[in-house]
């Protein structure tokens, strides 16, 4: 919630500053539209970038214990990821290799996203603590059993069940990644909407409609 409020405030401030700069430049530039629009957009994005960097510095200013905990959780997740990668190269099934490769890529993205935004660990932590270790162990056992020279019906059924469950787990990992990225998606959408509104309001305040290309 705090991240959401910061994003709203950042775009509100940068939007209004952009409008003020656009109007000021419009008057100073003898009522030329293009310089005013470019100046307003530049001011808006510049202020937004400065505020975003400041918010990131504030977010990074967390207790040492919390930083150590996040690093520990990500370190364990990355160690499991490396185990999965090693096991993948011993798979004989092409379909299983594709599933495990997809799972590996998705989890790598989740880890990288949390590294960039440590506060998102709260969203990914249940996956890291539950499904992820189980998935790695299942793949390793699958590799071990599939390489045996003999199999019975029970073993074949267990291998098929593992293939099905890992497919479902990969879909769950994809949903987890989308959840971790949800704030970034919302921020981008909000920024685009506010930029669109800023352009329309700047045009309205200047009493000059935006000309279309080719007219």
Q: What is the gist of this entry?
A:
With 215 residues, the chain is an all-alpha fold. It has two domains: 1-56, no CATH class; 64-182, Four Helix Bundle (Hemerythrin (Met), subunit A).
Could you characterize the architecture of this molecule?
This protein has 215 residues and is mostly helical. It has two domains: 1-56, no CATH class; 64-182, Four Helix Bundle (Hemerythrin (Met), subunit A) (Up-down Bundle), CATH 1.20.120. It is 85% helix and 0% strand. It contains seven helices and no strands. The chain has helices spanning 2-28, 33-60, 64-88, 94-116, 121-146, 153-180, 182-206. Helix 1 (2-28) runs antiparallel to helix 2 (33-60) and helix 4 (94-116) packs parallel to helix 6 (153-180).
CATH class of the largest domain: Mainly Alpha
CATH topology of the largest domain: Four Helix Bundle (Hemerythrin (Met), subunit A)
Coarse shape: elongated
As residue ranges, the low-confidence spans are 210-215
- What is the second-level CATH architecture of the largest domain? Up-down Bundle
Straight-line distance between termini: 46 Å
Q: State the secondary-structure class.
A: mainly alpha
Q: Tally of extended strands?
A: 0
Secondary structure layout:
Elements (H helix, E strand, L loop, with lengths): L1 H27 L4 H28 L3 H25 L5 H23 L4 H26 L6 H28 L1 H25 L9
Helix pairs in contact: 1-2, 1-7, 3-4, 3-5, 4-6, 5-6
């Amino acid at each position: 919630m705090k991240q959401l409020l910061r994003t709203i405030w950042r775009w509100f401030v940068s939007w209004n500053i952009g409008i003020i700069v656009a109007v000021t430049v419009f008057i100073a530039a003898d009522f030329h539209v293009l310089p005013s629009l470019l100046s307003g957009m530049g001011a808006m994005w510049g202020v937004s970038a400065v505020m975003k960097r400041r918010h990131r510095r504030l977010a990074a200013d967390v207790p040492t214990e919390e930083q150590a905990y996040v690093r520990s959780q990500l370190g364990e997740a990355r160690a499991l990821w490396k185990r999965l990668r090693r096991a993948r190269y011993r798979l004989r099934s092409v379909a299983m290799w594709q599933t495990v490769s997809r799972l590996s890529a998705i989890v790598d993205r989740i880890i990288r996203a949390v590294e960039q935004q440590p506060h998102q660990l709260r969203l990914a932590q249940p996956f890291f603590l539950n499904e992820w270790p189980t998935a790695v162990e299942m793949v390793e056992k699958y590799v071990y059993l599939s390489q045996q020279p003999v199999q019975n019906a029970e073993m074949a059924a267990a291998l098929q069940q593992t293939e099905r469950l890992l497919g479902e787990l990969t879909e769950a990992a994809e949903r987890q990644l989308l959840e971790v990225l949800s704030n970034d998606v919302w921020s981008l959408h909000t920024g685009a909407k506010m930029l669109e509104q800023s352009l329309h309001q700047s045009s309205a305040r200047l009493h000059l409609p935006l000309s279309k290309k080719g007219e």
